[in-house]
Amino acid sequence: MTDKEAYERSKAFLNSDFDATIEKMHELTDLLQYHEWKYYVKNDPILSDPEYDRLYQLLKQWESRWPDQIRSDSPTQRVGSDLSSDFETVVHLSPMLSLSNSYNIEDLDDFHRQVLKALPSNADKVEYIVEPKLDGGTVVLNYENDKLVRAATRGNGIQGDDITRNIRVLKSVPLRARFSDHGLSKVEIRGEAIIPIKRFARINKERIEQDLSSFANPRNAATGGLRMKDPSETAKRGLELLVFQIAYAENSKGERALLDLLTHEKSIRLLEELGFKIAPRGVHRTDTMKELHAYCEQWEAQRVAYPYEIDGMVVKVNDLIQQAAIGATSHHPKWAIAYKFRAKQATTRLERVEFQVGKIGAITPVAKLQAVELAGVTVESASLHNEDFILERDLRIGDQVIVERAGDVIPYVLKALKDLRTGDEKKIQFPENCPACHHPLQRIEGEAAWRCVNSQCSAQILQKLIHFVSKNAMDIDGFGEKYVHIFYELGWLRSIADIYRLDFGKMAQLERFGKKSAQNLERAVSKSKQQPLYRLIHGLSIHHVGLKMSKTLSAQVNHLLDLKDWSREDLTAIREVGPIVADNVASFFNDPSNIEVLRELESLGVNLKQTREDQPIEVDADSPLANKTILFTGSLTSMTRKEAQEKAEAAGAKTVSAVSGNLDILVAGEKAGSKLRKAQQQENVQIVDEEKFLTWIQ
Ligand code: IVH
User: Fold this and answer.
1) d(CA 411, ligand 1 centre) in Å
2) Are 217 and 404 in contact (CB under 8 A)?
3) What distance in angstroms lies between residue 490's CA and the mean position of ligand 1's atoms?
4) Contacts 24+ apart (CB under 8 A), 59-63
5) How do 184-194 and 240-251 pair as beta strands?
6) What is the atom index within ligand 1 of the atom nearest the CA of 332?
7) Contact 278/172 with Cβ under 8 angstroms?
8) Cα of 86 from ligand 1 centre, angstroms
């Protein structure tokens, strides 16, 4: 299928050009598989998300009609709903050995000499493929007659745990791949399930916000994700599966066919062509040791820029016949080696613990470490998150601890080396009072953090100010953390309203400041007065009210102070607002000192009114289309079907593509056919013509 064909066929399905038949349902299954591959493997989608969703829903509808015809490789069959409690053990078709490791260039030269020695004497050159060594969890996939039949962990190399149900939820794993086009009927593929570093950072941030423990590194999150009992939990980890080897292949006569693939590079290209995801910039061919060395070193230098966590490079003999000739020891193949990068883990001493106060008073313990180099970066401190984190690991001052840095993620204290204790280590005392204002700390039920609840606490005020000016909130250009500290020390800033009272003339006279930077800051502060309301709401540091929730709230009010009349119940009536957020918002607006600050902000010229950016797509609740499902059939004369669907959606309707029990309105254009007939047989469908529809969207 080409992109063009896929696009045109998708449009035809979206325009309901076909009636549901089993044959069409199978065609749609193939089409959705193609779109999944374009989206999840190639990162190059052809359809918009809503269009894809509509196709997916259409397939689901058709499948509900012929449940016994649903193909196991259908994209709708990725998430199983049944729960398993344990994993079965399965035997791999080909045992998976380990890779031998090298840590320097000399080791690579030794490896090369051994390879040459194992080959017939006329071989003086060997072609190698160099790949990144992905640091996630190994997965072994089995395909039979083009279908994914099993997925397993590496286990002990001979047998692993059956994790098929979890692997099926990973969109980067094709449920069907046309190996048969290449004469292969049984294949075993190996790959690495891995979480992209950026997504990992986001998952950890969310977990900390939800008072859940954070993951030490993407590898732990990935291997844990593979072993979830509930596949929908696996799906939440955002794992991707990048394949790196065909380990076994058999033709339809049951004969071994691996060597027919000729080279490792060809087998990887074949996997890519069949829809699998491979490591970006993942296959490099070379036949000189000099280039191989340079290439490995270049990757080591750039490893932090790679989207996935890698711990080295894997060097493999390219020719599969040569691989077979070189053979293996009982532990590892002799045709491959891992070139390991410098460690990202190190052992160092936990010198002391500082307790930092966050913008809503949460106390975060931070380990101060004896400086240590980790993958090229000097590490001196690491967050210990909360009291439970310390207690679970039984960390003590003076302990030797293992720290780890994963990608651009902040360093993490894995554990204390208890065997190295001398007896002089001291328990970490969690403070009972706020380190900044000495107010007694409280631990709110269900939360991991101890909190300072004094709203006048200087440390909290400082953090709130830093948050208010930051990119995500009021986005005051050039107003960094450093300036907040300076102005706070000078006594110029005590509340967010003071930002709009700053004396820029006085600022220009400050040492190390200058007229220019004061002027720039003045301009930026002044500009921020017109920021949309949601940014101001986010800037107020209300617990659990992030950017998205701020938008939800700003869409509900004309003026920010309207919220002071909203009760907790009024707030929970908003679909996205739960009881905790409702409590936090209600108590913020019940506090007279907060209202006072908001009034000051307004009198200083800061916008408190809802703006266009705050408004959701306007839906008139009285519109006959509000919250109705609508279907267009036949041809329209005044606009295209797509335009009509957009207009209907803008008026609050949901467009669907088939007649079902949920359908409210059918717009029948010219030459309407089977759908109209079907709708006429349904009791609750309102059937209208184009003219009537036009009166609703005027
Ligand atoms: S080839 C004989 N290639 O590293 C085993 N492995 O022991 C052939 N890994 O946990 C493995 N990236 O999951 C190979 N490009 C790559 C790899 C890779 C990561 C992992 C693999 C296993 C370990 C190798």
Assistant:
1) 25
2) yes
3) 57
4) 59/25, 59/28, 59/29, 59/32, 61/20, 61/657, 61/658, 61/660, 62/20, 62/24, 62/25, 62/28, 62/658, 63/25
5) antiparallel
6) 2
7) no
8) 26
From atom 3 of ligand 1, which residue's Cα is the shortest distance away? 244
Q: Give the pLDDT means over successive 10-residue stretches in the chain (698 positions).
A: 88 89 94 87 73 86 89 77 60 91 89 92 86 95 97 90 94 95 97 93 78 76 90 91 97 94 96 96 94 94 87 96 91 92 83 95 95 82 92 95 73 86 94 96 86 93 96 92 94 96 94 88 96 96 87 92 94 85 94 96 96 72 80 86 80 81 88 84 84 83
Mutate which of 97, 102, 242, 245 for ligand 1? The one with the most ligand atoms within 8 Å of its CB, which is 245
pTM of the model: 0.56
Residue 122 neighbours by CB distance under 10 Å: 5
Crossing angle between the packed helical segments 458-469 and 481-489, to the nearest 10 degrees: 140
Q: Which helix (H) or strand (E) holds 324?
A: helix 320-326
H or E element at residue 654: strand 654-655
Interatomic CA distance for residues 239 and 697, integer angstroms: 43
The residue among 151, 140, 136 whose CA lies nearest residue 200 is 136
Contacts of 40 (CB under 8 A, 6+ apart): 171, 172, 240, 277
Integer distance in angstroms from the first to the last C-alpha of the chain? 41
Which residue, among 134, 101, 132, has the nearest Cα to 298 in the 3D structure? 132
- Which residue's alpha carbon is nearest to atom 13 within ligand 1? 138
Q: How far is CA 494 from the centre of its chain?
A: 38
* Cα distance between residue 242 and residue 62, in whole Å: 32
Ligand 1, CB within 6 Å, residue ranges? 96-99, 131, 133-134, 138, 154, 192, 244-245, 314, 333
The CA distance from 108 to 300, in Å, is 15
Burial level of 70, CB count in 10 A (0-12/13-18/19+)?
Answer: middle
Position 647 scores a pLDDT of 80
- What's the CA-to-centroid distance between 224 and ligand 1, angstroms? 18
CA distance linking residue 451 with residue 358, whole number of Å: 9
- DSSP E strands in 287-358: the ranges are 310-317, 336-340, 345-357
Residue nearest to atom 22 of ligand 1 (CA): 138
Catalytic residue from among 4, 42, 117, 133: 133
Give, using CA atoms, the residue closest to atom 10 of ligand 1.
Answer: 138
133 is catalytic: yes
> Using CB atoms within 10 A of its CB, is residue 670 exposed (0-12), middle (13-18) or buried (19+)?
exposed
Distance from residue 403's CA to the centre of ligand 1 (Å):
24
Strands 629-633 and 665-668: parallel
Contact between 655 and 632 under an 8 Å Cβ cutoff? The reply is yes
Between CA 516 and CA 216 the distance in angstroms is 44
Closest residue CA from atom 11 of ligand 1: 99
Place of tokens 């266009």: 612
